[in-house]
Amino acid sequence: MIKSVQKAIQILQILSDGQNEPVPLSEIAERAGLNKSTCAHLLETMCESGMAERISRQEGYRVGILAYYITRHGRYHQELVEICNPVMCWLRKKTNHSVVLVMLRSHKKAIIHWVCGINKFPGNYGNMYYESQYRYSTSHAILAAMSDMERSEFYLENGYPTRDEWPKLYAPEGEKAAYDEINRRGYEIFRYPFETPGQVVVGMATALRNREKVVAALGIALPNEYGTHTMEDGQPWHLTQEEEASIARYLCAATKEINRRLQF
Fold first, then answer.
1. Minimal CA–CA distance to 215: which of 158, 262, 151?
2. Strand residues in 197-238 grouped as ranges (E)
3. Which residues are within 8 A (CB) of 135 and not within 5 positions of it... i.e. 6 or more apart?
4. Which region holds residue 151: left if phi is over 0, alpha if psi is between -120 and 50, else beta?
């Protein structure tokens, strides 16, 4: 039963990725890791409940009316998103890179809003949840900004990051040095492996505060390094020290403005 519920949720997310366009049964089954018969059975139940809607045998399915009804009260943390969105659009315009608003929820990293840059967002930005909550610059920024007590309670509930997720916590200098480095610099920058071997994604992030409480992180997702990504002019892209400094200035300015707006 639990597995069926998990698959139904996965199917709903696949339909949502279709942006109101029908998704064929074969594609849904493949992406959900199901055979077509099992997938069709789950979709039939979802259609009966209103969570999915069948357009036709050939075209496939899309999100149903009940899913829209459930979200009638607005998006997740709508007030925070409305405060952040104008500043995120400004930040995207200044840097040309994708900007994300992130929270840590249910043992996962949750992207609650994003503004896409001129290049494709690294990874599947249709996916709100990421299994590893510690392997990203946004997560590091949030945890570094917490008090020692808040951080200890968070680790007690969620577990401690692994060496792969946050290598600097295991450095000889100790974990406190890792937090202090982020807070002293004013932002986190972290490189983590991309799906394609030999590529890494660069993330830069700051913590957002509602007065003294850390509420989210503002992040910039940069293209893949090592010359595997090309910009619109066809030239390979690498993050230089000058560009990092420029992006950091805009990121910190955006963070300061959002924090100011959160006071009211």
1. 262
2. 200-210, 213-224
3. 164, 165, 166, 192
4. alpha
